[in-house]
Please model this.
Amino acid sequence: MKTQTGIFKSFDDSEIFYREWEQEDKSNGRILIILHRGHEHSKRLEDIAKKPEFAGYKIYSYDNRGHGETKTKATYEFMDLVRDLDIFVGFVCKKEQKSQEDIFIIANSVAGVTASTWIHDFAPKVRGVALIAPAFKIKLYFPFAKEFLKLAIKFKPKLNIKSYVKSKFLTHNKSEQNRYDNDPLITPNIPARQLTTLLDSAKRVVDDAYLIATPMLILSATDDYVVDNKTQGDFYANLSSSLKHFVKLDGFYHGVLYENEHQKAIDKIALFMKKCFRQKPKLIVDEMVKLTQKEQDKIAFGTLPIYKELNYSIQRAMMKRLGFLSDGMKIGLKYGFDSGVTLDYVYKNEPSGVGMLGKIIDKNYLNSIGWRGIRQRKANLITIIEQKIENLQEKRQKVKILDIAGGPARYLIEIATKYPQVEIQVRDYEEQNINEGRELAKSHNLTNIKYSQSDAFDKTNYDSKIFNPNIVIISGVFELFEDNTLISNAIDGVASIMQDDGFLLYTGQPWHPQLEQIANVLGNHKNEKWIMRRRSQYELDYLFSKRGFKKDKMLIDDWGIFTISCA
Model:
């Protein structure tokens, strides 16, 4: 067995320790990534890497933040673990000169939630995943424990809690119990916020698993004292994966890989891996479209429970009578809550209104989860734009940016100010947005950003002789339209004018906790109910890949609502 260790830098430049193993047998060119259980570290997976069933695979693992040999402190935000996994997969692919299709992932316990969240949110093209006793719902053995922890975090944001889990609840094997108890690299503590955000993410992924297409094997321990194995069944039942398998391991405790009969689990994983690499994953985009259309139709035409109908009626009445007090609500009521003017106001994030009461109402409005996600989307978008500007400038290329439906595009005013040598064009269908953008540019004395009125969905409006960009931005517009035929016109138009080595940045909304409330309370720019069909990242990436775009980077907020992809 060849063994190496190293460091990779994650999304925030934190240094993460990793290991790689390779058996002496001839390599089959495939990669296996094994993710360790919570509180543990990659060294404990070495015996698994030595299994003859995995001969031929190049095997990788890494120590989570605050675990094992990784010096970076533990994170307080669960989604950081998901981002670490995304960066690590990219690191391994680059190091081995392989694609995601050459990778299979084994993830144990908390890592099972990390892996499934990554699969749901980022829609990678890995060959398959085996989840071992995934911790979608942890048995906290204390009434209202999660609610209590969330309350405690408000008073002590960096609260740490010690795990109640003893080695005797992880495995029947006495030798493995002793190894666990005497391992100095075992991490007994976990940040309370990491735990609560993990549970929040796990719930949304389990409920929304029907938007997962990746082949999945679930290994469930029947005598698990740590996690609720019934929720694992819910996740499996919701999966849309064309290849999936659920295995009950009778009599097993939570630490499946360290149990007396752990070979049963290894055999199941090895067999499933062979199936995954033998057959090409089936595309199920049409099926996913139908599922989200069904969700949209239910919101648009379905009946609501009386308590919800009453709740939304009260919200509509309050907005109609008191909305004028809040400047943000007043703008939304006049121009539509999906309009560029509304978006611009949300980006500014400066509560204002009539008197103190108006400011309080406006502050609560601006602090809703959807608008917080929108502002994070803007920050992520700027991050990627600046990275791509610098990439192109390093190649001594003239940077030309086009936003096909940007509204006033206040964020591009910031880019134009910071990079005066960059040429920017902003287009929008609404004349008012164009006029407001021009006034913004004028007030900043900017000559490198131009505005013009244009319909993004009309292919005749795209002409490379007029403008030949190497960065094109499609932000916040596709989410407003349910029809893929319509948005395909925009993608075709963009593809026809982009430089071959250019970058396309597009936003997505794979999940949103307020779709029903938005539809029943807020109006759009057409003065109609604002009803959205969300697109999974899987569906969205597919639409762009059909036109020759290959995704190379993606950012997402901590709530899993808005994505920024670069292709």
Notes: The longest strand covers residues 2-9. The mean pLDDT is 93. DSSP finds 19 helices and 17 strands in the chain. The radius of gyration is 25 Å.
